[in-house]
Design a protein that fits this description.
The protein has 546 residues and is α+β, with helices and mostly antiparallel strands. It is globular and about 75 Å long.
Length: 546
């Protein structure tokens, strides 16, 4: 990429940022925080029982061996907490201390005590990955959860916890905002409730002010989190339930609007989940990181929050978010007619506009590829790109200019959304302008026609000039390829045959690909590519039958 293009992409990224973010980024370069090593305030005693939180899979394999992101490693020396050859996300997870509240955590209490002591001894205040704001926020909450569920606390642990809260209160991620700032605020709120006195009250008020403001912005009118990632939506919903939990335990008034947001967020998550009970893969979304819908519902019940749920309608239009769910008989489809997400924080956005996922007979068939890595590697770029999603690629370009690890320059804008619900047919359509920057200003319009046992998709490419167009369908690894010819493909899923047939000009081929249902995990699968090389405008039509 030449310098002019780099500058152009950079300017088209920065223009979406809030002024406050830019100012915070400048201040960040000069900010130097001196840790306050004063002793911790006295702790508060809960009035009510602190309820068991969502319990994830264990992360500790022994006193010194940890497993995150499907990768295991030993942490035996002080420098291991900050190994430069370890992926940053892996190190973040190491400093979260999620194992303190994971399944059967009480059986590992001795490991946990030693691990906390090691962290205090081997991570001096203000030094290393563990003192960055986000892992600090996660760890503060996890320590307090564990403290509330256990006993025999050491004074130096409490002193360390207070030092961490003080440091965090001066290190808020106002340059990032979004889920990071919310996590910072949640941690300060937890620390402010757990400790007593003026200093603790100040932490609480900082957290409360942020949370009440961010609740209004980050939860959309349809209940979706504004980053438009089902995974981060689940994390955010768990955050809200945790906040309710600790407020109830101390008989403290809840932040404004928090209860009003929780039930719509459950509705949204239900609509964005497949029949297998797990989330769909739009934007940064994969399994094994955030709690499932079932686990969140169980947690809410323990808190006295009842979500009635129930059967979803034939179609559910999440208008504020931009997603549409269609279900009938043995079919569920989730469709992306959304813009890329919050303009000023698109870091978890993908170039997946007008992609869709399809489940048949309670099994995923057509999918988006998910994610297995963060960072700024070529593989991260590929997984965020349009080609990794079940949608249309034009001239081998992305529909939105995703770049670096978490940045987006020019973004696709969706319009002309239409839904027609008839007795025998549901017809959806939408267009986006993400390719208008290309010669001839192509515009992609997609139409989904759902019938009893079939789905017909029409891709209309409007514009001028000759272009290479690919309609891409990623097939779930569990779908077994049975038969292929120039015009159609047969797969077997749950002992049922699924046929994908090309009904227009073009060339159909199957090529190897990879599916990423968890971080650190890449599974071989197939993707169908329907190739066209023609003058615009033209239509491409294919049919999925079952």
């Amino acid at each position: 990429m030449n310098n002019f293009k780099k500058t152009f992409i950079f300017l088209n990224t920065v223009k979406y940022l809030k002024i406050s973010q830019i100012i915070s980024r400048v201040k960040l370069q000069y900010r130097r925080i001196t840790p306050d090593l004063a002793s911790a305030p006295r702790i508060s005693i809960p009035v009510n029982e602190f309820q068991t939180v969502v319990q994830s899979q264990p992360k500790m394999l022994s006193e010194s061996r940890f497993r995150f992101l499907n990768l295991s490693s030993d942490i035996t020396k002080a420098e291991d907490w900050n190994l430069p050859n370890k992926d940053k996300l892996w190190l973040y997870n190491l400093h979260y201390f999620d194992d303190l509240t994971s399944l059967e955590f009480s059986q590992r209490v001795n490991w946990h005590r030693k691990s906390i002591q090691r962290w205090v001894d081997e991570n001096p205040p203000g030094f290393g990955v563990g003192w960055e704001a986000y892992p600090s926020s996660m760890r503060i909450v996890n320590w307090i959860k564990w403290f509330l569920l256990g006993d025999n606390l050491r004074r130096e642990w409490l002193d360390s916890l207070a030092i961490q809260a003080r440091y965090l209160s001066n290190n808020l991620e106002t340059h990032l905002l979004g889920n990071h700032l919310f996590a910072n605020a949640k941690a300060l709120m937890f620390a402010g409730i757990y400790f007593q006195g003026t200093e603790a009250d100040n932490w609480y008020q900082i957290g409360l002010k942020i949370i009440e403001k961010e609740l209004l912005e980050q939860v959309l009118a349809d209940g979706g989190n504004f980053e438009l990632s089902p995974m981060y939506h689940s994390i955010f919903l768990e955050d809200l339930l945790d906040i309710v939990n600790i407020h109830n335990a101390y008989n403290k008034e809840l932040p404004k609007n928090i209860m009003k947001k929780i039930l719509p967020m459950f509705d949204w998550m239900q609509a964005m989940s497949h029949p297998d009970g797990d989330i769909s893969f739009f934007n940064d979304a994969t399994l094994g990181i955030a709690p499932s819908l079932k686990n969140l519902l169980d947690y809410a019940k323990r808190l006295g929050i009842i979500h009635m749920g129930g059967e979803l309608n034939t179609y559910t239009h999440l208008k504020a978010s931009g997603y549409i769910r269609v279900q009938r008989d043995n079919m569920v489809s989730i469709i992306d007619t959304a813009n890329i997400g919050a303009d000023y924080i698109p870091g978890h956005g993908h170039a997946d506009t007008l992609s869709f996922e399809l489940s048949l007979f309670e099994q995923r068939v057509i999918v988006n590829s998910g994610i297995s890595v963060y960072g700024n590697s070529a593989e991260r770029q590929r997984q965020r790109g349009t080609d990794a999603h079940s949608t249309v690629v034009i001239d081998n370009q992305n529909s939105s200019e995703v770049w670096d690890g978490f940045r987006v320059a020019r973004r696709a804008q969706v319009d002309e959304i239409s839904i027609e619900n008839r007795e025998e047919q549901i017809k959806l359509s939408a267009c986006h302008d993400g390719y208008k920057r290309l010669k001839g200003s192509p515009k992609h319009c997609r139409e989904w026609n759902f019938y009893k046992n079939s789905l017909v998709i029409t891709d209309k490419i409007i514009g001028t000039g000759k272009h290479g167009v690919q309609s891409i369908l990623h097939i779930h690894p569990n779908a077994k390829l049975m038969e292929i010819n120039n015009q159609s493909v047969n797969f077997q899923i749950n002992k049922k045959i699924v046929n994908i047939e090309l009904q227009s000009n073009g060339k159909l081929e199957i090529v190897p690909s990879t599916y990423h249902p968890e971080f650190g995990l890449s599974i071989e699968n197939k993707k169908i590519i329907i190739n066209y090389n023609d003058f615009l405008p033209f239509e491409a039509i294919f049919k999925v039958s079952w």
